Amino acid sequence: MPHTLPSQLFGPMRDGRETSLFTLENDHLRVRITDFGGRMVSIEAPDRHGRHDHVLLGFDTLDAYRTNSGSFGTLLGRYANRIAGGSITIDGQTHDLDRNEGNNTLHGGSAGFSKLVWDVASADAGATPTLVLIHRSPDGDQGFPGEVTAKAIYQLEADALTLTLDAETTKPTVINLSAHPYFNLGGPDANDILDHELTVAADAFLPTDAAQLPTGEIRPVAGTPFDFRHPCVIGDRIRQPDPQIFHALGYDHCFVLRSGNPSVTLHDPASGRVLQIDTDQPGVQIYTANKLHGDFAGHNGLIYRQSAGLAIEPQDFPDAPHHPGFPATILRPGQTYRRFIRYRFTVD
């Protein structure tokens, strides 16, 4: 019989359904995950002196997640990021979607995967602590066609947390699953991530219009503030007067990943912590928390303001259904969607 992961009640939903908080732990990392939105609530990792501390923005209660805006640590679906005009066309048939950002659909709609309680399929605290969450999204959910069964598998092994995302459908649909953790490797006492060094294995990025929708162009990063092919201090680049930076009030763009790993490396020189992210996703959204305005406090009472954390979201390209030049995101019956994201924490 599998060992049960340590868990505790996290709080009730409005309909009375209880949520749980699970702990995956080994000698290197302690990770807490809730079935509400399948979100990562906290990750505690050591610095160069062996001191463990929070490296993830988050909250200590369910009510805080429900009350505060933002996608802190959550799973994203059915479609991460934006879909222009709140509609998609598949095999000649148009489907109107829930519009929750003006005329557009963001992160799957107002009742996307981040707002729901996932079912716990298994919680094993064996040699490789593993939590398996499942959500069955009905046909027509937020306007998307097909009944979709999505699965999120969290596994902790040595210094890495791996998230595997699976999905199957009963009708042709579009799928783009991801997660939305905000990292600050300096710990909860660090005000922002502007001193962090970022490396992204991307020769190009997707420019956006003023509504932050991709224009369809795939633009080389060379000669732009989006060139992170070598380690660069985020604060040195984010202040450059580029129209794309003005659109987003910082970085909120999808980078086109090269094959090979790591895809993204984040380094905090002060603490010595290094985060390496490996993935088979074709892109990664880099977001400098531009819309956090100090309205609420998280772990250790720290007030979250702009650039308090860096969201790193490996995913398919935003608004791909409207851009034939982007990798297709259509999933058909009989096919299995599968992606992985691995978060590895080391020190320099």
Task: Note the topology.
Elements: E1 7-12, E2 18-25, E3 30-34, E4 40-46, E5 52-54, H1 62-67, E6 74-76, E7 82-83, E8 87-90, E9 93-96, E10 105-106, E11 119-124, E12 130-137, E13 148-157, E14 160-169, E15 173-174, E16 178-180, E17 182-183, E18 197-200, E19 202-206, E20 219-220, E21 232-233, H2 234-238, H3 243-248, E22 252-257, E23 264-267, E24 273-279, E25 283-287, E26 293-297, E27 303-305, E28 310-315, E29 330-331, E30 337-347
Antiparallel strand pairs: 1-2, 2-3, 3-4, 4-5, 6-16, 7-10, 8-9, 11-12, 12-13, 13-14, 14-30, 15-29, 17-28, 18-21, 18-23, 19-20, 19-22, 22-25, 23-24, 24-30, 25-28, 26-27
Give the gist of this structure.
With 348 residues, the protein is mainly beta. The chain contains 3 helices and 30 strands. It is globular, with a radius of gyration of 19 Å.
What would you say this structure looks like, in words?
The protein is mainly beta and 348 residues long. It has one domain (7-347): Beta-galactosidase, Chain A, domain 5, CATH 2.70.98.10. It is 5% helix and 42% strand. The strands form eight sheets. Strands 11-12-13-14-30-24-23-18-21 form a nine-stranded antiparallel beta sheet. A six-stranded antiparallel beta sheet has the order 17-28-25-22-19-20, with no helix packed on it.
CATH architecture: Distorted Sandwich
**Widest beta sheet: strand line-up:** 11-12-13-14-30-24-23-18-21
Q: What is the averaged pLDDT score? A: 96
User: Helical residue percent?
Assistant: under 10%
